[in-house]
C-alpha cells in the first residue's frame, strides 16, 4: 500500500520580498515545505452522508423485518416448516437463525446490532435465548477465559480452505448481495464458528458437513461489534479433521466512504458515472463478505460477480466465463486464485476502457481508466513501465509473477495513493495517469515510484505475506526500498538508491525517530483499531532504511540471493521477520561469512530510535580512537517513554564503516562492529592532518559525531576539494551536523560553516540535504526579531550558484528527463532557496513570469519551477494575483496543476486572504477533502499564517476530527503539520491546554506534538542566541 508522499515539489512558503516592496509591506519568507510532511492519502469519511445512508438502510431493514414477521406468523399458522439439507430446526424457527436457506431472510440482524439480541420472534423465544446466553457467559467466566468472539484475534480452531463468493452489484441503488460458501477445516472441536463480518445484514446461515449429507444445526447467531465478528453457535461440536461448509447469505451497501466495497464517480460528457471498487487492507474485507480477515488465513477464492451488462467487472484473476441473461444482466465467473490473504483480494464494477501490453513471460498487463483518459493516452507511461518492471522483478527475485494477468485500475478517489491487490492493483488517478506535456519531473518521479512500489508488493506482500500486522514493515519497508532500486533500473542515471534515498527516506525518518515518543518498527498490535496505526512512516521509511543497511553490510549480491531463497521458500504462505533473518543468515554462511542477523536486527527492529556514534581522539600517537554510542534524542529533557528503561540501556550492534582521509585522498573503508557503550579501536595510517569519516555513503541508520578538531578538518576538506568526499557523504555530513546542533550535541556554528562550501557544489543531493535541513531551522527563527541576519547569511551562500545556473528557459521533453534530471533538480533547488530567502533577481523573475501569464493569458512558466513562481508571485504581488490564481485553480482540470495552484494561495502574507482560504477549505464543493488538510498545514508554515492556522485548527477541531478522525494517517499529518513549528512558551501552553480539553483520538499524535514543541522551545532558550552571535560575527568578517 502506498501512502501518499510528496517529494518536495511544493514551492517555498511565502518568499522574502524585494527590498522596495518590503519597505511597504512586512517581509515574509520560508523554505520549501515538505521535509516533515507526513503526507497521506485522503480517507475522507463524509460522516453526514454516511449517516443518511445508514438511516435509509435501517429503514429498509425495519420494513423487511415487519414483512418477515408477517411471513413467519403466516408460516407458523400454516404449520409450514422450513427445512433444507437437514439443517432446519426441529422446533419452531428461532429468529436467531436456524439455518434455513429457503430464500426467505429470517434473521433480521442489522449491522452493528447489539450481540445476542436477535429480534423478538413470533413465539417469544427471546427469554430462553437470553438465559442460554447468560449461562454461556458465566461458563466462560468460570473458566476465566474470554469467550472466543471477544478475543482480539480469531480463535484458531478453524481454518478456511476455500471460498466461493457470488456477488450481485446493484449500482442503481448502491447495494449488493452476496452468498459466500467457506470450506472449513477443523483443528480443535468447537461449537462456535467465529469469523469477521461488519456492517452487513446477514439473511441466512447454514453449516453442513462436506462429505455427508447431514447439516449441523445452528442454535443461534449474533454479531459482536467490538471485535467485528459474527458468531455461529451450533447445537453440537464440529469434529476435528473433518471439513465443513459454511454458507452465509447477506447484503450490504456499496459504501460512500472509501473502505470495503465502496463507490466513486466521475463525469464523462457531462454525465456522472459511478463505479464500485474495493479497499480491503488492512481490515475491511469483513465489510464486503464474512471471512477470516487476518493475513495468516490464506485460502483460495473463486469469485463470481453479477452486474448489469452496461458495466464490466474485474477481480484478481481473469474472467473464465461470462453468462448473459435476457434481462440485461451478466455474471462473470473468475478463475480460482492461488492461496492468498483476504486483505489483497479485490474486485471492481465500472465502465472503464483499457489499453494492454504483454510481458516477455506472457503476463497480460492492462491499464483501466475512464474512457477519456485512455483515449488521451494518459495511462501509456504507467503501462509501459509496468511491463518493464515485471520483467525486472522476475529477474531480480528469480520467481516468476504468479498470476496470468495484472490489471492497473485508475480510480478518481481512493483512500491511499495505491493498493497492491494481487492482479488488480488500484491507484488514485493522480498517482498513475500522466500527461507528459504538463507534468514536471517530480510528478513523473511520483508516478514512477508508486508503480514500482505496488509491483514489488506482488512479491513482497502478496506472494509472501507477513504473519501479522506487527511486521507490516516487512512488506512496506521492502516495497519502499525497492521504489529506489526499481527506479534505478528504469532510469540508471538517476542514482536513486545511492542518493535520493538519503534525503527522502533516511534523513526524513530520522527526524521522527529522534523523538522520545517514537516507537519500534515492529509494533505490538492487539485490537483491530491498532492496525491502522502501524501504517506510518516509521514502518515505511525506517523499514526501508534498515533493509538498506542490511543489504549494504551483507553485500548486495548475497542479499539478493537471500531474498530469492526467502521468496521461494515462503511463496503462497506467510513469513515472520525471523524467517527472513534465518534465510539471510544462511545465504551469508554460503559465502563463508558468519553474522547472526537475527541478533543484530532485533536490536534495530524491537528498539525504538537510533544511535549517535561519537568518534573521538585521533590526537594520540598510538592511532587509538574511542568510539561510543548513545541513543539520539532531540530533546534530552524529555522523559523516556518507558520510565523503566532509561536512554542509557539502549544498545545497538552497529556496522560502522570508517575511512581516513587527507587533503587529496580517502582510504578504502573498513567495517567496525560497535556493540558496547564505548570501545577503543586502532586505526592504521592516522596522521597529523588526517580526518576520520564514519558511515561511508550513509548506508547505516545512525548519526555520527566527531570531536571539534575533526569537524574542522572535514569542513576544511570540503572547502578545498569537496570531491574527495563522496556525494552521499557530503549530504550526510550536512544533515548530521544540522540535526546534531539542533539537539545540542554540537555547537550551532558547525552546520552553518559546512554550508559555506556549497558555492562550489555542483551536485544536487548536498543542496537538497541542506535545503531540507535548513527548513526546520528557518521555522524556528522566522518570527524572531533578528531573522534578517540568518536570512542574509543563507542568501550569501546561495547567490553565486544561483547566478551560475540561471533559470530554465524551456519545458522538458522526454529525452531531456533522463539526461538532465540531476541538473534540472539542482537548478530548481537553488531557485527555490533564492526566492524563499529574498534574492532580488529571483523575485523579479517570478513577478515577470506571472505578469506575462496574466497579460497574455498564456502560461509560459517552465513546468519544473511553476510551484515556486506561483507562490512567490502570490506572496509579493497584490491581491489581484491571488484572485487570478484562485480563478485558475477553479478552471484547471489537470490534477497536478490544481494542487500547486491551491498551495500557492497559502503563500499570501495578507491575513484576510489566508483566513478566507482557511474557511473555504472546509467546503467540500470547493476544496477536495484530502486537499483541505494541505491548505491548513501550508498556512501554518507561512509565518504570517501560523497563528491563524493554529487557531482555526482548535476552533474547527470537532469538524476536522469527524472528517479525518478515523483515518489515523490523515489525522496525524494534520496534527503534526499544524503544531510542529510552534515554538514559543505561550504556544506550548495553548497546546497543552487544548489537549486537556479536546475530544477524539489522535493521542499519539498529540504527545508527539507536545514533545516537538517542547524541543523547539528548549532550542530557542538554549541555542538561539549562540546562533545569532556567530552569524553576526560571521557577517561582519
Ligand atoms: Zn505498500
Ligands in the model, by name, code or SMILES, are: zinc ion
Oligomer: single chain
Instruction: Give Rg in angstroms.
Output: 31 Å
Number of DSSP helical runs: 31
Uncertain stretches: 6-58, 75-124
Decide which structural class fits the backbone: alpha+beta
**Share of residues in strands:** 15-25%
Distance between the termini: 53 Å
Percent of residues in helices? 40-55%
Shape: globular
How many strands, which pairing sense, and closed or not: the largest β-sheet? 8 strands, mixed
Mean pLDDT: 86
Number of strands: 30
Order of strands side by side in the largest beta sheet?
A: 5-4-8-2-1-11-14-13
Structural write-up:
By secondary structure, the chain is of the alpha+beta class. Helices cover 43% and strands 19% of the residues. The chain has 31 helices and 30 strands. The strands form seven sheets. Strands 5-4-8-2-1-11-14-13 form an eight-stranded mixed beta sheet, with no helix packed on it. Strand 13 and strand 14 form a beta hairpin. It is globular, with a radius of gyration of 31 Å. Mean pLDDT is 86; it is low at 6-58 and 75-124. The site of zinc ion has 7 residues, from helix 6 and helix 7.
Amino acid at each position: 500500500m502506498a501512502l501518499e508522499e510528496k517529494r518536495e515539489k511544493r514551492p517555498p512558503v511565502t518568499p522574502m520580498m524585494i527590498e522596495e516592496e518590503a519597505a511597504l509591506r512586512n517581509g515574509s519568507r520560508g523554505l520549501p515545505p515538505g521535509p516533515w510532511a507526513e503526507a497521506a492519502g485522503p480517507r475522507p469519511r463524509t460522516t453526514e452522508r454516511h449517516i443518511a445512508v445508514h438511516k435509509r438502510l435501517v429503514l429498509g431493514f425495519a420494513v423487511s423485518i415487519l414483512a418477515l414477521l408477517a411471513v413467519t406468523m403466516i408460516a407458523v399458522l400454516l404449520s409450514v416448516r422450513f427445512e433444507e439439507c437437514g439443517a432446519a430446526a426441529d422446533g419452531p424457527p428461532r429468529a436467531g437463525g436456524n439455518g434455513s436457506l429457503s430464500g426467505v431472510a429470517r434473521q433480521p440482524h442489522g449491522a452493528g446490532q447489539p450481540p445476542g439480541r436477535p429480534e423478538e420472534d413470533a413465539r417469544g423465544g427471546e427469554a430462553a435465548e437470553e438465559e442460554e446466553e447468560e449461562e454461556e457467559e458465566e461458563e466462560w467466566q468460570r473458566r476465566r477465559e474470554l469467550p472466543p468472539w471477544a478475543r482480539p484475534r480469531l480463535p484458531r480452531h478453524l481454518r478456511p480452505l476455500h471460498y466461493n463468493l457470488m456477488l450481485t452489484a446493484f449500482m442503481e441503488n448502491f447495494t449488493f448481495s452476496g452468498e459466500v460458501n467457506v470450506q472449513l477445516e477443523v483443528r480443535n472441536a468447537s461449537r462456535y464458528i467465529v469469523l469477521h463480518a461488519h456492517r452487513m445484514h446477514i439473511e441466512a446461515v447454514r453449516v453442513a458437513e462436506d462429505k455427508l449429507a447431514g447439516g449441523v444445526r445452528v442454535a443461534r447467531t449474533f454479531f459482536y461489534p467490538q471485535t467485528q465478528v459474527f458468531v455461529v453457535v451450533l447445537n453440537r461440536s464440529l469434529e476435528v479433521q473433518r471439513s465443513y461448509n459454511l454458507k452465509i447469505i447477506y447484503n450490504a451497501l456499496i459504501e460512500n466512504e472509501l473502505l470495503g466495497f465502496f463507490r466513486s464517480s466521475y463525469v464523462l460528457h457531462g454525465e456522472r458515472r459511478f463505479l464500485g471498487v474495493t479497499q480491503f487492507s488492512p481490515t475491511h474485507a469483513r465489510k464486503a463478505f464474512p471471512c477470516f480477515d487476518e493475513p495468516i488465513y490464506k485460502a483460495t477464492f473463486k469469485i463470481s460477480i453479477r452486474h448489469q451488462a452496461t458495466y464490466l467487472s474485474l477481480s484478481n484473476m481473469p474472467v473464465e466465463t461470462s453468462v448473459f441473461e435476457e434481462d440485461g444482466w451478466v455474471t462473470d465467473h473468475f478463475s480460482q486464485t492461488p492461496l492468498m490473504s483476504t486483505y489483497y483480494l479485490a474486485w471492481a464494477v465500472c465502465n472503464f476502457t483499457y489499453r494492454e501490453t504483454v510481458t516477455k513471460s506472457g503476463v497480460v498487463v492492462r491499464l483501466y481508466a475512464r474512457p477519456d483518459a485512455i483515449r488521451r493516452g494518459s495511462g501509456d507511461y504507467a503501462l509501459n513501465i509496468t511491463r518493464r518492471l515485471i520483467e525486472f522483478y522476475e529477474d531480480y527475485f528469480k520467481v516468476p509473477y504468479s498470476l496470468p494477468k495484472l490489471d492497473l485500475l485508475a480510480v478518481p478517489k481512493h483512500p491511499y495513493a495505491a493498493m497492491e491487490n494481487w492482479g488488480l492493483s488500484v491507484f488514485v488517478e493522480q498517482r498513475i495517469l500522466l500527461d507528459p506535456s504538463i507534468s514536471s519531473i517530480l510528478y513523473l518521479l511520483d508516478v514512477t515510484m508508486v508503480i514500482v512500489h505496488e509491483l514489488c508488493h506482488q512479491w513482497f506482500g502478496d506472494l509472501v505475506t507477513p504473519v501479522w500486522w506487527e511486521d507490516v514493515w516487512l512488506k512496506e519497508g521492502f516495497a519502499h526500498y525497492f521504489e529506489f532500486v526499481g527506479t534505478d533500473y528504469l532510469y540508471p542515471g538517476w542514482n536513486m538508491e545511492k542518493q535520493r534515498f538519503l534525503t527522502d527516506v533516511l534523513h526524513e525518518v530520522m527526524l521522527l525517530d529522534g523523538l522520545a515518543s517514537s516507537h519500534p518498527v515492529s509494533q505490538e498490535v492487539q485490537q483491530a483499531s491498532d492496525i491502522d496505526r502501524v501504517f506510518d512512516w516509521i514502518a515505511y521509511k525506517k523499514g526501508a532504511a534498515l533493509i538498506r543497511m542490511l543489504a549494504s553490510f551483507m553485500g548486495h549480491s548475497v542479499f539478493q540471493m537471500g531474498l530469492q531463497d526467502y521468496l521461494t521458500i515462503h511463496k503462497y504462505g506467510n513469513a515472520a521477520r525471523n524467517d527472513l533473518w534465518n534465510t539471510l543468515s544462511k545465504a551469508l554462511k554460503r559465502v563463508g561469512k558468519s553474522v547472526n542477523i537475527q541478533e543484530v536486527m532485533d536490536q534495530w527492529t524491537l528498539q525504538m530510535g537510533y544511535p549517535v556514534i561519537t568518534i573521538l581522539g585521533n590526537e594520540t600517537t598510538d592511532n587509538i580512537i574511542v568510539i561510543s554510542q548513545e541513543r539520539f534524542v532531540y530533546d534530552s529533557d524529555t522523559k523516556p517513554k518507558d520510565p523503566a528503561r532509561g536512554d542509557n540501556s539502549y544498545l545497538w550492534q552497529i556496522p560502522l564503516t570508517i575511512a581516513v582521509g587527507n587533503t587529496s585522498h580517502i582510504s578504502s573503508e573498513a567495517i567496525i562492529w560497535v556493540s558496547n557503550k564505548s570501545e577503543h579501536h586502532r586505526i592504521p595510517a592516522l596522521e597529523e592532518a588526517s580526518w576520520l569519516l564514519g558511515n561511508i555513503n550513509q548506508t547505516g541508520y545512525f548519526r555520527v559525531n566527531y570531536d571539534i578538531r575533526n569537524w574542522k578538518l572535514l569542513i576544511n576538506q570540503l572547502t578545498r576539494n569537496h570531491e574527495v568526499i563522496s556525494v552521499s557523504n557530503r549530504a550526510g555530513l550536512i544533515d548530521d551536523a544540522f540535526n546534531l546542533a539542533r539537539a545540542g550535541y554540537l555547537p550551532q556554528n558547525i552546520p552553518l560553516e559546512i554550508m559555506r562550501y556549497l558555492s562550489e557544489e555542483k551536485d544536487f543531493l548536498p543542496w537538497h540535504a541542506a535545503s531540507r535541513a535548513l527548513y526546520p531551522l528557518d521555522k524556528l527563527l522566522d518570527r524572531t526579531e533578528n531573522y534578517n541576519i540568518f536570512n542574509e547569511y543563507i542568501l550569501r551562500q546561495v547567490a553565486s550558484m544561483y547566478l551560475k545556473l540561471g533559470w530554465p528557459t524551456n519545458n522538458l521533453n522526454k529525452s531531456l528527463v533522463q539526461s538532465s534530471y540531476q541538473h534540472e533538480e539542482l537548478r530548481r533547488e537553488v531557485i527555490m532557496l533564492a526566492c524563499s530567502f529574498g534574492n532580488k533577481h529571483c523575485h523579479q523573475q517570478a513577478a515577470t513570469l506571472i505578469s506575462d501569464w496574466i497579460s497574455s493569458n498564456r502560461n509560459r512558466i517552465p513546468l519544473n519551477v511553476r510551484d515556486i513562481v506561483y507562490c512567490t508571485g502570490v506572496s509579493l504581488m497584490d491581491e489581484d494575483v491571488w484572485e487570478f490564481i484562485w480563478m485558475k485553480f477553479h478552471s484547471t482540470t489537470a490534477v497536478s496543476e490544481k494542487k500547486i495552484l491551491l498551495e500557492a494561495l497559502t503563500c499570501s502574507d495578507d491575513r484576510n486572504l489566508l483566513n478566507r482560504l482557511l474557511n473555504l477549505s472546509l467546503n467540500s464543493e470547493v476544496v477536495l477533502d484530502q486537499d483541505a488538510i494541505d491548505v491548513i498545514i501550508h498556512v501554518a508554515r507561512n509565518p504570517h499564517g501560523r497563528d491563524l492556522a493554529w487557531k482555526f485548527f482548535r476552533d474547527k477541531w470537532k469538524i476536522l476530527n469527524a472528517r479525518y478522525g478515523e483515518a489515523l494517517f490523515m489525522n496525524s499529518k494534520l496534527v503534526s503539520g499544524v503544531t510542529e513549528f510552534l515554538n514559543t512558551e505561550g504556544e506550548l501552553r495553548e497546546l497543552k491546554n487544548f489537549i486537556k480539553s479536546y475530544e477524539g483520538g489522535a493521542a499519539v499524535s498529540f504527545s508527539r506534538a507536545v514533545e516537538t514543541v517542547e524541543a523547539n522551545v528548549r532550542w530557542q532558550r538554549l541555542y538561539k542566541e549562540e546562533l545569532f552571535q556567530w552569524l553576526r560575527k560571521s557577517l561582519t568578517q
